[in-house]
């Protein structure tokens, strides 16, 4: 089909999850005359919050900062479960008519930029029928996050094929899994593992969290008493804004304290853990990570539910390395065997930049790893493409909201000056670079060769500071010597 016959949109948003719904809101608010669609590979909206169905699935950030700035979180729980978050996302989309712009079963497989036409050709595979279709757009906004939705990460375990029980990854949790009265071993120590343990402990015979390396784990109240009082005094809108500002400041203060005083932070966390655990518990064996706080994310447990399960004796933690599976459980290198009927491999995610979409510019394939992120929102040498990746040290949505605001400001700048092409290019091709995400988590370290990089100076640094990003993305100048604009066709006024 010739390009002239293809449907053309001003903006295509890839992904109907937290970031995609947010991007659509800001776009239609700031540029109501621009046409757009959200292409979603799956059959439902919500992204992560529709995909994950494992027991206890919840946020690991408070919803006053994890929620959208433009729509208050009204639930009493500030750390909410997956179904509540999914309902919030879908209600937001319906309230603003965003749900009508979502095209389900539309998996983007390739995008091809044409400089003469100043547009992208988007190749789509219908996930329900296998049909191939295409459309064109002036801008792409990639809002699919950074991990694969079709499979999680599971390392190779010797002897797993001979295990007589059930092995399940949290990302593919079966609806009919019956673990009542059964012995469960959860392999892993991250946020997913510490969420699943207390959720299963009340039903299973016993749950063991088997960790190779401990994580920092802290209790946090699931309900924010101050937020509840402020809602009564100020109403939901004003109270949400006030609590959001307070929690942003609190998150930043905790992170900065851990970065500046890691040894003191470690002692404080250990003291809290000791108070939560049974008397005489081997804290230094199971709750003493070899890295500093916030080198990886801290795991929050609402109302101390994990510690409560350990105190009751319905759950336990074992630290050791796996030698392999037996017919009846998991064997450690120490020789100990953990009997199990169900093994949960909470071993992490598979990172996949831009949903695995093949990107090319004027016929030349783009190697994402060879690109440098411009202000954490665009890629060097790639025109008219924006992407959303949130914070690793704070609530994801805080960053995404600012990126969406910047994207809309960029479009307005281009309209005002008659531009239709925007391409970041480093002034110094020899600028030193480093990984996009300076983060020690295993799933990030395994994927560094598949992610963009960042530079050693602005505007090529990827900030992890909300306050810095407010200055840069919300209030900073759009015009920049390293951001090149062109006028190749008549623009559509916003």
Would you mind describing this structure in some detail?
Keywords: FAD, Flavoprotein, Membrane, Monooxygenase, Oxidoreductase, Transmembrane, Transmembrane helix. The chain crosses the membrane at residues 6-27. InterPro entries: FAD-binding_MO, FAD/NAD-bd_sf, Flavin_mOase-like. Belongs to the FAD-binding monooxygenase family. The chain is of the alpha/beta class and 494 residues long. It has two domains: 3-149 and 350-486, FAD/NAD(P)-binding domain (3-Layer(bba) Sandwich); 154-347, 3-Layer(bba) Sandwich (FAD/NAD(P)-binding domain). 29% of the residues lie in helices and 24% in strands. The strands form eight sheets. Strands 1, 2, 3, 4, 5, 6, 19, 20 and 23 form a nine-stranded mixed sheet that branches. The protein has a five-stranded parallel sheet with strand order 8-17-9-10-13. Strand 9 (183-187), helix 5 (191-201) and strand 10 (206-211) form a beta-alpha-beta unit. Helix 1 (18-30) runs parallel beside helix 11, helix 5 (191-201) crosses helix 10 and helix 11 (396-417) runs parallel beside helix 13. The longest helix has 25 residues, at 236-260. It is globular and about 70 Å long. The relative contact order is 0.15.
């Amino acid at each position: 089909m010739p390009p002239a016959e293809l449907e053309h949109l001003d903006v295509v948003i890839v992904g109907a999850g937290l970031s995609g719904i947010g991007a659509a809101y800001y776009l239609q608010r700031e540029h109501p005359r621009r046409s757009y669609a959200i292409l979603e590979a799956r059959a439902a909206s919500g992204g992560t919050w529709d995909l994950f169905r494992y027991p206890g699935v919840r946020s690991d950030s408070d919803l006053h900062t994890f929620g959208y700035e433009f729509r208050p979180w009204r639930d009493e729980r500030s750390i909410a479960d997956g179904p509540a978050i999914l309902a919030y996302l879908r209600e937001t989309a319906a309230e603003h008519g965003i749900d009508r712009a979502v095209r389900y079963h539309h998996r983007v497989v390739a995008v091809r930029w044409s400089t003469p036409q100043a547009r992208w050709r988007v190749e789509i595979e219908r996930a329900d029928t296998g049909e191939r279709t295409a459309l064109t757009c002036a801008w792409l906004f990639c809002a699919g996050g950074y991990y694969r939705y079709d499979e999680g990460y599971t390392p190779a375990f010797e002897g797993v094929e001979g295990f007589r029980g059930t092995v399940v990854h949290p990302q593919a949790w079966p609806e009919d899994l019956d673990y009542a009265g059964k012995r469960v071993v959860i392999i892993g120590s991250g946020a997913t593992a510490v969420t699943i343990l207390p959720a299963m402990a009340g039903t299973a015979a016993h749950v063991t969290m088997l960790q190779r390396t401990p994580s920092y784990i802290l209790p946090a109240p699931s309900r924010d008493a101050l937020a509840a009082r402020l809602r009564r005094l100020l109403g939901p809108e004003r109270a949400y804004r006030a609590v959001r500002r307070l929690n942003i400041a609190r998150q930043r203060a905790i992170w900065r304290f851990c970065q500046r005083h890691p040894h003191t932070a470690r002692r404080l966390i250990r003291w809290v853990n000791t108070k939560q655990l049974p008397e005489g518990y081997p804290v230094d064996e199971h709750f003493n990570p070899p890295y500093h706080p916030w080198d990886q994310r801290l795991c929050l447990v609402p109302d101390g539910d994990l510690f409560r399960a350990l105190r009751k004796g319905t759950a336990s933690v074992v630290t050791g390395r796996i030698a392999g599976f037996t017919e009846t459980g998991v064997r450690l290198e120490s020789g100990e065997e953990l009997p199990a009927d169900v093994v949960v491999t909470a071993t992490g995610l598979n990172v996949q930049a831009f949903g695995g979409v093949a990107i090319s510019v004027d016929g030349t394939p783009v190697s994402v790893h060879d690109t440098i992120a411009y202000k954490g929102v665009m890629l060097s040498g790639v025109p008219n493409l924006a992407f959303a990746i949130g914070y690793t040290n704070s609530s994801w949505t805080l960053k995404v909201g600012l990126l969406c605001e910047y994207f809309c400001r960029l479009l307005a700048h281009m309209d005002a000056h008659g531009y239709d092409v925007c391409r970041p290019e480093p002034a110094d091709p020899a600028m030193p670079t480093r990984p996009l995400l300076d983060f020690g988590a295993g799933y990030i370290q395994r994927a560094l060769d598949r992610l963009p990089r960042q530079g050693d100076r602005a505007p090529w640094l990827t900030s992890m500071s909300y306050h810095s990003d407010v200055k840069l993305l919300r209030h900073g100048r759009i015009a920049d010597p390293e951001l090149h604009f062109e006028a190749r066709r008549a623009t559509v006024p916003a």
